[in-house]
Structure formats: C-alpha cells, structure tokens
C-alpha cells in the first residue's frame, strides 16, 4: 500500500483539494473543546487536539435525525403516508479521526448491519465515508485503548493512518479507498526509510505509554450469574446520578428512541439518542419498569459493554478505551476500575 509524506504547510492544500470532490469533516476548536465539523475552509481543521468531547459517531448516527414527514390534513393525497426526508449521503472524508473512534464504528456496525435487518442510513453513510485517522502520539491520561484490544496507532478500522512528525505527516494507505485518496495527492512525496523509521518510533513510544490496566479476556468464560449478582455493583452505583453523560459521550453506545412531533397538521418522525441510564428507558406501556432501580441501570451499562456484547458477538468488549466517560463523569465513576472489578484483574488508578 502507498505511503507518502506531506509537509505540514502543504496539508491545508491537500485538504482543500479533497474538499472540491467530497464533504470533509475534521476536528474544529469550539470553546474549550473540539468537535468534528463540516469544513468550509481547510485551515479550520485543528489537528493539535487530543480528543473531541463528543465522538464522531454523530457523523454516522446523528443525535437527532428527522426520518420521515407526513400530513394529517384531511383530503391531502399524502395524508397519513410517511415520506422519507432527504439526507446528505454523498461522498465524504473524516479527517483526523482517532483510531479508537474509527474502531467504534466497526463495533457498532454489528447493531445496524445484520443478516436480518439493515439500517439504510448508517450503511450508506459508512459506505460513502473515507476515514483518515490521526495516530495518538501523546495519549490522554484517561485513555486505555490497549486494554480493550485496540491501540493509539491501530489501523484496522481506518482507510488511511496518519502519523505526525516534527516537519509533517506520514500518510499510510490501509484500504483501496485510502490508496485512491493518496494516489491523487501531489502535495506528498514517497516516504523515505528514515521517515518511516521515525514514524514507527512515535507509534512504539505511544504504545508503551499505555500499559494494560485490566485483562478483559476472562469475561468470555465468567458465568453470567456470577457477574450479575456480584456484590460490588452496590458500591459502583452509589455515586451515580443517572445523568447519561457517559452514554452520550460514548462512541459505541447506539441506543435511540423514535418520537413524532406534530405542528398543526404536519408531522415529523424523529430518531433521537437515548440512554440506558435514564429511568424511562425501559418503562413499558403497562407501567411496569424492569430496571426501575439505579443499581439495575448502572449494572446494565457495564454488563453490556463487557459481558453481554462479548457473549453475543464474540469480538471483544463494546468499548474502545477513549476515556471520555472517565474524563467527564461528574461523580468520578471510572470504567477502568469497574472493568477491573468485573475481570478481577485490575491494576487501575484509584
């Protein structure tokens, strides 16, 4: 696969050229944080960020999405008929995505693209999107990607892996889509052996800075009832306020609700992010709620990430170690510590 070197001063030129044929999303500075936004100028892409507050999951699975419209007007030929609302599903590039966030797309694919059902909007956006990843040369202190089967320079879910060096970026094609993107890049030159060695050293150093804090493999064999009835859940849930911050920031949470909004005689059917941490999430129409207690909801979140998903799909935990929930939990619940308690192999910070 093609590998090129692009000087830092030429990167905006490269992004701008790609913008001529595709919608390009990149991390943009907003207030005291960053968020992936559609670029209107290439120089708005800020690759000095460590991680965005919200994951780029929202680019494929928006927080709020109008799916269908309908009319309630008597005599209208379209009365009561759902009409799909047009969506921008054309070619696009996500520039500078972290490997952990790209890996999350693969984990969530399992939910939206199955043998029995396919979410057409998730599938079409995924197929139309090229992921240009930016390796984490300096991971955050809250990152733990190496503990869940990925890493700061994991290329397995990317089309292109980008490594930052002092003078520029090494861009390595991983897929055919990535190769096509780099093949049309006059801004770059073939990466020399010395440049490749320097990039390899950056990746190795980043990997060494992230020791494994727990070992999730034993969860495959651990009896479900043993984990479900464990005494530590009472301790874990004690501080939780069920705010849902962890699930809304998480790149692998996929839960949603569907609601209708009607104004006068026009209606819209919406898909909205939802959270298993909310008391209403499992409320039945009968009034029964199988998870009406906080402990049950907290246990559900961690059991889904590290046990239910593992048992059902067999491809590792539904977590990529991005650390967002560790950084932003208002009551300092640490998923690394909880995972360690579940696996009984914790060497996590207390």
What would you say this structure looks like, in words?
The two termini are 43 Å apart. The protein has helices at 11-19, 99-112, 120-127, 176-183, 193-208, 224-228, 232-237, 245-249, 294-313, 324-328, 335-343, and strands spanning 3-7, 23-30, 33-38, 64-71, 83-84, 92-97, 129-134, 160-164, 168-173, 189-190, 256-263, 266-273. 30% of the residues lie in helices and 20% in strands. The protein is α+β, with helices and mostly antiparallel strands and 350 residues long. The strands form 2 sheets. An 8-stranded mixed beta sheet has the order 3-2-6-7-8-9-1-10. It has a 4-stranded antiparallel beta sheet with strand order 5-4-12-11, with no helix packed on it. The mean pLDDT is 94. It holds the Pfam family Fer4_22. This is 4Fe-4S ferredoxin.
List strands and helices in order, with pairings.
Layout: E1 3-7, H1 11-19, E2 23-30, E3 33-38, E4 64-71, E5 83-84, E6 92-97, H2 99-112, H3 120-127, E7 129-134, E8 160-164, E9 168-173, H4 176-183, E10 189-190, H5 193-208, H6 224-228, H7 232-237, H8 245-249, E11 256-263, E12 266-273, H9 294-313, H10 324-328, H11 335-343
Mean pLDDT: 94
Strand content: 15-25%
Total domain units: 2
Taking the sheet with the most strands, its summary is: 8 strands, mixed
Low-confidence segments, given as residue ranges, are none
- Count of helix runs: 11
Count of individual beta strands: 12
Structural class based on helices, strands and sheet pairing: alpha+beta
Which sequence of SSEs, written as H and E, runs from N to C?
A: EHEEEEEHHEEEHEHHHHEEHHH
Radius of gyration: 22 Å
Shape: globular
Query: How helical, in percent, are the residues?
Result: 25-40%
The span between the termini is 43 Å
Spatial sequence of strands, sheet with the most strands: 3-2-6-7-8-9-1-10
